[in-house]
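Okay, is this right?
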Amino acid sequence: MNDAAPADPADWTPDLSHAPGPKYAAIADRLAADVRDGRLSEGAKLPPQRDLAWRLGVTVGTVTRAYQEAERRGLIGGEVGRGTFVRPRAARFQAMLGDPGAASATPGPGNPWAAGDPAIEDSIEGPEAGPIPLQSNVPPPASEGRLFRSTLAAMAEAPGMGDLLTYHPKNAAARFRRAGVDWLSRRGVEVLEEDLALTAGAHNGLAATFATVLKPGQKVLAEALAYPGIKTVAKLLDLELVPGTIDAYGLTVDAVATAAAAGRIDAVYIVPTLQNPTNAVMPEERRIEIAGLCERYEIPLIEDDICGLFPADAPRPATVHAPKMGYLVTSLSKTLAPGLRIGFVKTPHRMRDYVAASVRASTWMASPITAEIAARWIEGGGADAILEERRAALARRRAVATEIFEGCDYAMPEGALHLWLTLPPHWRASQFVAAAAAQDVMLTAAHAFTIGDAPSPGAVRVCLGGPRAEERLVQGLTRLRRILDEQDPLAEAEVM
């Protein structure tokens, strides 16, 4: 529980002595922390900008910019002639979620968001019912539904669409691959159409690639915590997953170098951009080193880049540095629409047909109908519009999560679809998931991502895109924070 004593808002003077970065940002950060910790209560009137500037020894312009930044974050709101006030918690969330009405919310009668009730979830009646799905790593909704309907209408009037119902639509496969070449160029990846295989999503792409380059019984080095679907693929193909040491930046170079030199692995599988579940982003230098090791030892490097387009400045895929051994797997599931089931595998030169043969063996082909939709979106600019909407939605949802989990230990970099929450020592991941389920919030514990005998950390994955309504996300995250603050599983066990 939070025992911080409220401060007299008229005397509020943040300590900037050890604050890094610009002064205005430090003031806004300190204000956010004091609101979160209860030192500035809801409805508190902040000191005039000139008074605060004098006390801090900064310019009035600096304080003005700080207040503007705090207002942008949804923390405060101003009224002409009255002053600047700390918004009620519910109104702060609504402002972050883009509600224009809440953006000017200040305490007062007739404002339902200014009641000061910390139980924001009790004030929201969203369109969704049932448990809040924070266990599904899906993208937040965008306008893909409207674009889908208009695309279907255009396709219905276009000549030759009946060919898409056959096994081999005339000239369609080449066009779909060209759309994939166009899409990969957004990641700074240059690829020839002849080196790009069309797949039924990234999962199918991974299965086809593994089936192409490996034989039953061979070993794949993977991050010790990895995408659970890779375990399904390995089991299907009778492959052994070897857990590799990871750190804050993903799979370590030493893990690859040691296993490769000893001849203990036959392939390497990595997710270097927004790794699932840890959210690690591997730096360029490490990508180059791992790619170089795979080239040197002639070990296939299979890279999953499904979320690579979400961060604004993610390093290029590692496989661009492994022209002979690199296989880049991606899809449109996270960026555009999971239901399209369209993915691509960039292969080393002359390996495309082998991967394509594995696609045919597993699912025959990606659906020409959904591939046509994807191609039209990429060619016409709709795909870029959806991607930008998703980035904006993720930024809003991340801002809310940052506010709610202030002071907690988590990883949630720019573009992340989830936060990787490290629990306090007194919580086991399975206990926390059970406590969340009792509050109708669904999560995934760390053991679901563990490879082999690797230790399972006390952490959970909290996904941001599952609830379609952003208010439902606020409900779920608020409940999780309450569990962290108010429940002690050890104490409860002693009582039982």
